[in-house]
């Protein structure tokens, strides 16, 4: 199996569409609460493709409401600003990557897991009095490198999936064994290309190895959230191995079994509520 070099990934991400300016504005100002919703709606509406994808998501079974959403402003009124910002980001990202091009890889499961990590990260951030939106967004984006690998190396990634199934190992370990690179490193390159903040880039890059110096606390939150989300088992396909949470990360968040049980209960309830609102 051919190994994938990082310089190859650097060139490949350059072929991806750039994210719309309004999406970058949302990502770079995710923790700001004083957002002018009319201005945001106006900026999104100027991008016809993004508007169509956002409204399609808002009207899907995933975000079903009793009313048909016909404008971005109406979506904000019905679903709330935080939810709509996440829909806009998701709509932009899904527009960059083709679906169903890799046998054995489920985009639906990918977004299920991403949403579960986002929910757990938000719950952990709330306990630590940190920004909920930043933690949620980092959780939503943490595995974005996987989509790059599935898009540009679909045949090779089918071998990753087969290896993971055969050896009952983590996705991260299977990628390194088969490809010589992992989705966290690929996600870091994409974050650099898309000009994500250093905080977000480091969370994506370090969510499997958060104890590396200089990554910041957000990487630790996403790392722990990722491990907890695997325990929730929200995907339809088999979850072979739960990534281990490092002892340093566990203790730095002040977790114990009682707190873990509370987080699992809260996250499970919130994810089930999300499933009722949107078909994840």
Structure summary:
This protein is mostly helical and 280 residues long.
Would you mind describing this structure in some detail?
This protein is mainly α. Helices cover 65% and strands 0% of the residues. The protein contains 16 helices and no strands. It has helices spanning 6-13, 21-28, 37-45, 48-58, 72-79, 81-94, 107-127, 132-141, 144-152, 154-167, 171-178, 183-193, 198-205, 217-232, 247-252, 257-277. Helix 9 (144-152) packs across helix 12 (183-193) and helix 10 packs across helix 11.
Structural topology:
Layout: H1 6-13, H2 21-28, H3 37-45, H4 48-58, H5 72-79, H6 81-94, H7 107-127, H8 132-141, H9 144-152, H10 154-167, H11 171-178, H12 183-193, H13 198-205, H14 217-232, H15 247-252, H16 257-277
Helix pairs in contact: 1-12, 4-6, 5-6, 7-8, 7-14, 7-16, 9-10, 9-12, 10-11, 12-13, 13-14, 14-16
List its salient traits:
280 residues; mainly alpha; single chain
Note the main sheet: none
| SS elements, strand count | 0
Structural class by secondary-structure content: mainly alpha
**Global mean pLDDT:** 89
Question: What is the string of helix and strand elements?
Answer: HHHHHHHHHHHHHHHH
Low-confidence stretches: none
β-strand amount:
under 5%
Q: Describe the global form.
A: globular
Provide the gyration radius in Å.
18 Å
First and last CA, distance:
34 Å
The helix count comes to 16
Measured as a percent range, the helix fraction is: 55-70%
């Amino acid at each position: 199996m051919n190994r994938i070099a990082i310089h190859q990934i650097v060139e490949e991400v350059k072929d991806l569409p750039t994210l719309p300016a309004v999406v970058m504005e949302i990502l770079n100002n995710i923790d700001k609460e004083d957002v002018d919703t009319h201005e945001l709606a106006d900026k999104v509406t100027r991008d016809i493709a993004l508007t169509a994808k956002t409204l399609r998501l808002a009207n899907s079974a995933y975000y079903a409401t009793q009313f048909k959403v016909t404008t971005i402003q109406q979506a904000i009124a019905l679903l709330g600003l935080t939810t709509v910002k996440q829909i806009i980001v998701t709509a932009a990202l899904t527009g960059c990557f083709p679906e169903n091009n890799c046998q054995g890889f489920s985009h639906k499961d990918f977004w299920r897991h991403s949403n579960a990590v986002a929910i757990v990260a938000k719950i952990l951030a709330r306990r630590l009095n940190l920004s909920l939106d930043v933690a949620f967004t980092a959780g939503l984006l943490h595995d974005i490198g996987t989509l790059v690998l599935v898009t540009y190396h679909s045949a090779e990634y089918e071998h990753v999936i087969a290896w993971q199934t055969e050896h009952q190992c983590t996705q991260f370990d299977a990628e390194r064994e088969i490809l010589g690179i992992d989705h966290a490193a690929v996600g870091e390159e994409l974050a650099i290309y898309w000009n994500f903040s250093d905080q977000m880039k480091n969370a994506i890059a370090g969510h499997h190895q958060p104890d590396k110096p200089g990554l910041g606390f957000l990487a630790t939150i996403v790392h722990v959230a990722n491990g907890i989300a695997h325990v929730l088992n929200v995907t339809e396909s088999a979850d072979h191995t739960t990534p281990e949470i490092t002892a340093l990360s566990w203790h730095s968040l002040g977790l114990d079994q009682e707190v873990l049980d509370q987080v699992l209960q809260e996250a499970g309830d919130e994810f089930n509520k999300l499933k009722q609102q949107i078909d994840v």
